[in-house]
Amino acid sequence: MDKSILQAYRETDYLVHATRPFTLRIDEVCAECDTLMDALRVSTAAYVAAWNPYSQRRSSAENARAQNALAAELAAHCISVLDGVGTGRIGGWPPEPSLFALGISRDKAVSLARKYQQNAFVWIERSKAAELVFSAW
Question: Which three-class secondary structure string do you get for the chain?
């Protein structure tokens, strides 16, 4: 993966539109996320998207179709989701709508990221720092 793309992932704010919105950052623990996970009695989550497969820009319509398919697939697996948006702190990429999947297994998150051709996703375990997980290889 191109170093600039890797840097962009690391320098993105991953906003979750919860009742009390919070932002995830790679390699940081998020107390607000832990509070939400405790309330919902889950210990894992993944911040996933279907926009711009393999970091190749697509039209808004193509991205929306892929994102809707991802949301439907998560719903079919009874995985609760909250909307989110990833916004880079260094510019270059427009904000990307995302989904915060609560209680998902890491294997399922990897599988979905690969299916929707995403280079990576953000993995969260209760009380641990958010982790960038590479799924493209």
Answer: CCHHHHHHHHCEEEEECCCCCEEECECCCCHHHHHHHHHHCCCEEEEECCCCHHHCCCCHHHHHHHHHHHHHHHHHCCCEEEEEEEEECCCCCCCEEEEEEECCCHHHHHHHHHHCCCCEEEEEECCCCEEEEECCC
Token readout for 38 is 């405790």
Looking at residues 33-58, what average pLDDT do you find?
A: 96
pLDDT tens digits, 118-131 = 999 999 999 999 99
Here the tokens at position 127 are 């009380």
